[in-house]
Amino acid sequence: MKLPEAFIQNLTTLPEMDIPAFINALEDSSPVSIRLNNKNDYHPGHKNKVPWCENAFYLDERPLFTADPEFHAGNFYVQEASSMFLYQIAEKYLKQCKTVLDMCAAPGGKSTLLCNVLSEDCLLVSNEIIRSRAMILAENIIKWGNDNVVVTNNAPEDFGKLPGFFDAIVVDAPCSGEGMFRKDPGAIDEWSAYNVQQCAIRQKEILKSADLTLKNDGYLIYSTCTYNTDENEQNVLWFAREYQYDIINPDLNNFPGIVQSEAGLRFYPDKTKGEGFFISILRKKNTETQHFGTNYVKKIKPIKQFPVDENILKKQQEYIITDNGQQIIAYKHLHKNEMLLLGEILNTIICGISLYSRKGKDLIPEHQLALSKVLNAENFESAELSLKEAIAYLKRENIVLNDNNRGYILVKYKGSPLGWVKNLGNRCNNLYPAHWRIRMNIG
What is the pLDDT of residues 414-423, one digit of tens each? Predict the structure, then answer.
């Protein structure tokens, strides 16, 4: 691996850096790790645990995840192990939060992790500025199945319309990607000292936007997958000084190999089993910044309720079912006002649980309902698919089911819902989302 000389020179300024050991680690293959979802009692039996994240495991080799229906069902997420340290931070500092923003969330690793740590009473807003990446984020959030997540497609500065709205914000900032050199050799060709400086400038702008929408005493978690101090310590120290934040140093006694720097935690591939990563915990001091006011509730438009079978969702009494003319959507009463408000202020992609879409006089069950953790699956006709049938379904090919049960059928693989078909007897209309379908040739 030929590394840029300027990059190597930057590494020599880091006191904990052992450059020969670091370069040797980059010559090894990247570890593969997954994190399990807390739905459908999925337990694959892996034993090599990621030490800082519950229900996360290293794999001996990288399988073809595309050919695993349980991956598409949202039973696990493939995530780089170092970045999973967010689990430790969320467990200690974010459990009591009522509103959390993942500001740069695509493709969804940190948001899905937060889904499994935050209280069910917490509202998570998962945002991505680039539309194509926001759609990938939405796909992964739908697969994860939580009902307390809003996915938005907004610039960071748009959140200034919500002053003091969030108890905590995660900023996994776009960066120069030095920590991904082993995993993505193409990142080496894209690296330059100029790009590092441009990333650092952009990161400062994102942090400014985060400050506007964070409550007093709220937590800001800042991370990058890069090594240089310009994008890491220097940005954190500047931000803490200029915007009045305290830097928090967590206890690392149980995690040897993680390096505590002056402004955050550093992960190196020769010291921990993972890629390069930096993460910092900051807490906003009690300043006189503007707080989110109740007058914003006036922006919420009236909603039309819709009667549906009371057994569609688990604990359905906790939800309000609405009809916007195109879709039937369920909002948890606890989050309804905030979700509707966000729908008025931001560009939302997911807001509530889409239950049905209208096609003429028909109501067609939505894919989000099929994969939701609150789906009452026993209330729907279902069919168990073989591996071959499941792959065909995920490729949006035709499958044939027993014609005894016609109409909309929930199809499953090993008990996990994959989506819907409309069984016509001699064939099925495959309702798997066309833009999600497997395009790879799997034998």
Answer: 999 999 999 9
> What is the architecture of the domain spanning 5-284?
3-Layer(aba) Sandwich (3.40)
Query: pLDDT band at 108, cuts 50/70/90?
Result: very high
pLDDT higher than 60, residue 298: no
How far is it, in rounded angstroms, from Cα 172 to Cα 153? Answer: 16
Quote the CA–CA distance of 172 and 247 in Å, as a whole number.
Answer: 17
Active site residue 225: yes
The enclosing H or E element of 32 equals strand 32-36
Those residues with Cβ within 8 angstroms of residue 369's Cβ, 6 or more apart along the chain or in another chain = 312, 353, 354, 355, 356, 375
Under the banding of pLDDT at 50, 70 and 90, the label for residue 131 is very high
All CATH 3.10.450.720 domain ranges in the chain, comma separated: 380-443
Helix (H, G, I), strand (E, B), or coil: what is residue 189? Answer: helix
DSSP 395-426: TT------TTS-EEEEEEETTEEEEEEEE-SS
Per-residue pLDDT at 302 exceeds 80: no
Look up the CATH number of domain 380-443.
3.10.450.720
CA distance 432 to 143: 12
Active-site residue, selected from the candidate residues 104, 122, 225, 351: 225
pLDDT of 310: 77
